[in-house]
Amino acid sequence: MRQATAAPVPRMSLRQHVAGAAHGAQLFAAAGRIDLGTAAHSSWLTGADAGPDATVLLRTRDQHDFALALLELDGRAGRLIICPPDLTAAQAAAVMAQHGVTHVFDDATMEGLTPVDGVRRLALRALPQQADVTAPACDTQWLMFTSGTSGPPKLVAHSFAGLTGAITPLAGADAVVWGTFYDVRRYGGLQMLLRALTGGGSMVLSQTGEPVAAFIARLREAGVTHLAGTPSHWRQALMCPDLTTLKPRYLRLSGEIVDQSVLDALRGAFPGVMIGHAFASTEAGVAFEVNDGLAGFPAAWLDMPGKVEMRVRHGTLHLRSGRTASAYAGGGGALHDDDGFVDTGDLVQQRGDRVYFAGRASGIINVGGAKVAPEEVEAVINGVAQVHQSRVHARRNPMTGSLVAAEIVALPGCDEAALRAEILQACRAALPAYKVPVSLTFVAALPMSAGGKLERRHA
Asked: What does the pLDDT read at residue 284?
């Protein structure tokens, strides 16, 4: 199907933002660093024909090349399809066929694929050329994959304005060094990258498969001041003795439910450092940020007018804002309701003047007709002093359909028998009987998804 040409708009491109803001800011990668001001005034890619009619698939080997491609292509190509690092060759081939891809970058895009007639390849130049830092030719549409936690990943369409709508300028941004455990080819990591690039700060990129200790060493060398990741990222980092050698000014959590135990652990590791957690999704964009040191968010934020409107319907959080994606690409179904609200699929519970996330509607365990959100039970378990992390899942049962089971990562040197008793006591005190795990299994570690989230099990 022929894609409509993106209309010219009077807005700054990403390149122009960086050219105007990057005064000595650096992009740090595992293989080296590059001055962002120089990068913004340089042309890095071959393929000058990737114009407003072009749909470019970005499936890069590393995040450094991806960042350079964004500088080159935003405001120039009509659509950018941003592939996460775990997108398979078969999935890439399907995306190319379904969405009318005209160009690909880089060679990683074609790994495992049969070359497609008419599709042009973009590549990094051996030596960059002087760039034309002029007004953008089009308002590039950025297509990103959902996490797939509620089914097969879908592509959602964002504008540059929507992606950057939650970013506010920081005082002294030229002294800010951002870092993120996220991969910047996913929504959460892209938010951190855009904060740095549009705000004049430096950025430290992680590398796929890089050990946590090695990344922390690079963060320390770069002088990271603002560091972000999922709660699972942070729990993994807290097990690294070198974490506290960092001297950050701000820590941020997002991407998963943030319980009080991980906030308290970070506060203990970094006393006096500002710690915030944010809620965002690929579909709904960035909704809010909480900086009071407490899990959940104030109930007063519900049903209030503003740039972001939130309401609870049938137990899940619904959002409406200008940061929301415009649509699913390729006929992926309705993204929002008739009033413009996106159902996030995140279950919430109001207790007093606070609203807490309870889990994903798609992940509920059915125990004889009673509903159990795994994350609610995990929050109780994680609050036990000697627990590092937990994962709650369903265990099949012929009588009730499922029962609740849990896997536990304990802190080194603990007495497992005593800890088992303490966990069960805490669960029985805080939860109805049907939510209390019938089995506790101690494990050395819990797997994380490619997106930095706890890998969920199913019965």
From this structure: 86
Q: Which residues contact 66 (CB under 8 A, 6 or more apart)?
A: 58, 60, 82, 184, 185
346 and 404 both lie in a single domain: no
Which tens digit of pLDDT belongs to each residue from 288-315? Answer: 999 999 999 999 999 999 989 999 999 9
Residue 449 within any structural domain of the chain: no
Q: List phi, psi (to 5°) of 212.
A: -55, -45
Q: Check residue 4 and give its pLDDT.
A: 47
The reported pTM is: 0.88
pLDDT value of position 459: 47
**Domain span including residue 286:** 14-351
Q: Would you say the C-alpha torsion 320, 325, 326, 332 has a positive or negative sign?
A: negative
Q: Which residues of the chain have pLDDT under 70?
A: 1-10, 107-110, 115, 148-152, 173, 331-333, 458-459
Tell me: do 224 and 258 sit in the same domain.
yes
Looking up tokens 């959902």 gives 146
In a domain, 356, yes or no: no
Q: What number of other Cβ atoms are within 10 A of residue 169's Cβ?
A: 10
Instruction: Please give the biggest Cα pair distance in the chain.
Output: 70
* Res 108: pLDDT: 65
Full DSSP string of 51-90:
-TT-EEEE--SSHHHHHHHHHHHTTTSSEEEE--TT--HH
Neighbours of 108 (CB within 10 A): 20
- The H or E element that residue 163 is part of is helix 160-163
Query: Please, are residues 366 and 402 in contact by the beta-carbon 8 Å criterion?
Result: yes
Query: Which CATH number fits the domain that encloses residue 297?
Result: 3.40.50.12780
Closest CA to 388 of 340, 327, 451, 445: 445
Residues 80 and 224 in one domain: yes
In angstroms, rounded to a whole number, what is the distance separating the alpha carbons of residues 194 and 189?
A: 9
**Which among 180, 183, 242 has a CA at the least distance from the CA of 217?**
242
Task: State residue 196's pLDDT score.
Answer: 92
Structural domain count of the chain: 2
Q: What amino acid is encoded at 220 in this protein?
A: R
Are 325 and 370 in the same domain? no
201-248: per-residue pLDDT in tens?
999 999 888 999 999 999 999 999 999 999 999 999 999 999 999 999
Residue 28's H or E segment, with its range, is: strand 26-29
